[in-house]
Amino acid sequence: MPDMKTKTSNPFLEEPNDIHCIEGEDAILTCKLKPDTPPVKWLKNCRELTQNEKYIISMEDTQHKLTIKNTTESDSGDYYVKFGFFSKKIQLNITDPFLEEPNDIHCIEGEDAILTCKLRPDIPPVKWLKNGRELTQNEKYIISKEDTQHKFTIKNTTESDSGDYSVQVGKFSKKIQLNITVRADEVFYNFDIICPKRRTTHCKNIIEKAQILFLKNPMIFSA
């Protein structure tokens, strides 16, 4: 729908701007009109929008608003504010905030685990969570940002640090699973074996994936 005008003066006190919105956030389209303006209509791709749970149409003094709740990619498109013979186009772009999504992390107990992702510059504040609970910076957790890269560092990890983490941007979030591998302690057992000559002695390894070394006074003679 092209912009239309009559010879009357411009009714806009403040014209609408194109909008960029993060998926999951509410998009608010606004303009300011002179008080004596005819009733306003909001349209998307030439189809008039009516108020419902998705679209909230409001006016306060000279400011007119169309609020699109909980946006999805399908909400992208050309919108129009129309009144009488006038109309103005507003382009709405819904974007995924992630330039590079986070990956699951595997870490050895005692090492630092670093969770990373890359996000667009114009985003709402970022939150880091574990099992749905927000984490804040302290001696254990270091939150940092450099350009578009966001980092969450967990210092000196223990087995209890394993779990489901998430990075949240507005209402948009991505899950990261952190797995901590526990270091196995070295265990020594002393035992005597008495067996006839030319016999093979068997020892069962009951520790999964552990390496067993046989020593004698105290040299390794079999592994």
TrEMBL record:
GO terms for cellular component: cytoplasm. It comes from the Eukaryota. Residues 2-79, 97-177 form the Ig-like domain. It is found in: Cytoplasm. This is Ig-like domain-containing protein. The keyword Lipid biosynthesis does not apply. InterPro entries: Ig-like_dom, Ig-like_dom_sf, Ig-like_fold, Ig_I-set, Ig_sub, Ig_sub2, Obscurin/Obscurin-like_Reg. PANTHER family: OBSCURIN LIKE CYTOSKELETAL ADAPTOR 1, SI:DKEY-31G6.6. Keywords: Cytoplasm, Disulfide bond, Phosphoprotein. CDD domains: Ig (cd00096).
